Amino acid sequence: MTLAFAAPDAASRPLHVVVADDLSGWLAAQPAAVRGWLTDGDFKAALGDLRLLPAADGGVAAAVVGYGSAKTRARGRFGLARAATALPAGDWHFEGLPEADRDEAALGWLLAQYRFDRYRPGAEIGPIARLKLPKGCDAKRLLAMATGEYLTRDLVNTPASDMGPAELETAFLALAARHGAQATVVCGDDLLAQNFPMIHAVGRASDRAPRLLDLRWGGSGPSLTLVGKGVCFDTGGLNIKPSSGMLLMKKDMGGAATVMGLAEMIMALGLKLRLRVIVPAVENSISDRALRPRDILTSRKGLTVEVNDTDAEGRLVLADALALACEEAPDLLISMATLTGAARVAVGPDLAPYYTDDEAVSDALAKGAKAGCDPVWRLPFHTPYEHIIEPGIADLDNAPGWGFAGSVTAALFLRRFVDAPRYLHFDIYAHSPADLPARPKGAVGQGARAILSALPQMLGL
């Protein structure tokens, strides 16, 4: 789908945005025909309630959409987004939209138009209603955010049959080529030769070779390194998941997809920084070569890891990638992963939990989340739990089986491989379990827009 707003000088029809508390006053100011039409139709200005207003020739002259109350708007983002897919094709503009809400409304308009139709070539997309951007909105920025989000969604929605390590590499190289970035790949047994032993150990059971993807872009400014978990499918390994646990495992590369979407945003906007993106891409499969419970691995950093659960493989591949990233000491290091079910238990599917020891980074993210309409929530790097991930027989335990704070102990495990001045880790879900405004059921980006909006403060751009 081509993402575009209406041209600034386009003739457009009005979409009246009406707050529920102001409905009586708004109706009183309308022509009798409009007032009667909406009153007879029991229009209450509920959030997202769309009504078309007829023209004298039988066409559509305008539309009205409810904006609910402050309370109902607080219960969810992108309340106006459903109008984007319910309006007739053509160009539209908002009337009566509060200035403070214009960016969210415009972004929601774009995100609501997403369709994953790769496997339905004959499916009808339906009419596209284009929005004439409200005054003051940054079209380039909004389009970059939506384009990055679309990339993330497409990658995660694609089943593992068509999105294995090789296909993820293809998408990664295409991203680099679009923006003139440099990319390298280390594949198969070359991972051992170049000292990525834990990435190799996790991926060696599959006939789809594991690999490390590495992208560099930008020649000046502060350095930012993004590391994304690219487990293209996770059976759980020899600690095999139940069938119900595998149903969403095509999304276990959601961290990789999210950092690639974020990189798309950064490069499209030409931010003045030096970007590096590292993705360990593997499939966690079962064979006679599979990683075994109680194996002990020696990581790239030299730390030894006892494998007490082969289904806790994401932190293993991330550990080698983080060690590589820290060999250059980036100004800011960010990892993103669909890492633990414990994070979902803690905050549910809509919030993106993150970890950092840097108060300035956390403060910037709080502001960035609001600006990007991308909610995040801070969880603690709780150092007193460090002993939980120390098994005694090796330096670290990848799955201590403690039964508590699973997201926290996973984050602490990753932190052991980080030597960078500032580190930020996201434990995301990358999936919307239900159709929500601007977020159809299926893949969804989390945290990327918050980070993008926070980068100027975090890196002094």
Automatic annotation (TrEMBL):
SUPFAM superfamilies: Zn-dependent exopeptidases. Coiled coil: none annotated. One of its GO terms (cellular component) is cytoplasm. It comes from the Bacteria. It is an enzyme of class 3 (hydrolase). One of its GO terms (biological process) is proteolysis. Residues 14-134 form the M17 aminopeptidase N-terminal domain. Its EC number is 3.4.11.1. Keywords: Aminopeptidase, Hydrolase, Manganese, Protease. Transmembrane segments: none annotated. Belongs to the peptidase M17 family. This is Leucyl aminopeptidase. The lineage of its organism: Bacteria, Pseudomonadati, Pseudomonadota, Alphaproteobacteria, Rhodobacterales.
